[in-house]
Amino acid sequence: MNTFEPTAGAKIVVIGGGTGSFVVLSGLKNYTHDITALVNMVDDGGSTGVLRDELGVLPPGDVRQCLVALSRSPEVRELFNYRFADGSLRGHAFGNLFLTALEKMTGSFAEGVELASQVLQIVGRVEPITFENVRLFLRDSNGMHMGQHEISQLKFDGKKRPKIQLGPDAKPNPRALSAINSADVIVIAPGSLYDSLAPTLLVSGVGKALATAKAKKVYICNLITKPGQTDGFSVQDFASEIERLAGYKFLDYVVYNTNKPSKRTLGSYAKDGEFAVDLPDLTDKRHYKMIGRDLLSEKISKVPKGDLIGSSRTLIRHDPDKLARQIMKIFFS
Questions:
Q1: Quick check: 200 and 40 in contact, CB under 8 A?
Q2: Above 50 in pLDDT, residue 310?
Q3: CA-CA distance, 189 to 15, in Å (whole number)?
Q4: pTM
């Protein structure tokens, strides 16, 4: 049962993309109506990649996920989640096609997102972090790599953190910066560090806006490491990389999970080189406050086909309500 009034007036900004933002937004919409989701714009895999390459549109995938997370219409949520299984549209999510059609019809991705927001009856707003047609670039010891999808599959040598940039340089969406500047709480959602979170933090002006904003700035740490990219990472390691990518030490709070999954569950992940994130050394003093809580979802059920959380790795997940309640506690603190 909620102990916070949804009309409390908390202005909350959630930064990220993909499943991490989806989970955070799904919980927060039950506690406040003033939510702004700031979404990365570098997705180039799957359905989104095909639409970008063939039709020259901006990537709809992560925007779609955030719209669906904030929707108050279960029926339309299912429609936007629907993914075609056969024919020439095989692999395409209906929501991606819908957003693409709106962009083509209006001539503006921004207008398309606003119209989709009305159709989905969303709580709050969804704002692309930039409207530039950008790509993600990463340089490591093996050379330069281009594209979100390729970078998501990379394995680094672990000796030196990779250099990441956007190309061309991305101008920020003015409404995204305005949301950061006026927020009460800014949440960096959990997610893939280099191909989901980095593309939001690297947009010109975003790091400085985060550093100067008066809001309480919170990072929700990942539950599981990513093979070849964040092997052996502790909570502090993730937080340090978030700030390195942003170019500023801006965090006020780092929230992490303390409920360890079962050995059996962890074993199924370990087969693929994925491990629980190491708990922080609390004697290691940092400029931010560490908050450890049970944030693990207890629901282990079969994910319906087309569900945005669905993947082969669904046993260890954040609980949307637990996350939202902790964020609201920080707001009221």
A1: yes
A2: no
A3: 6
A4: 0.94
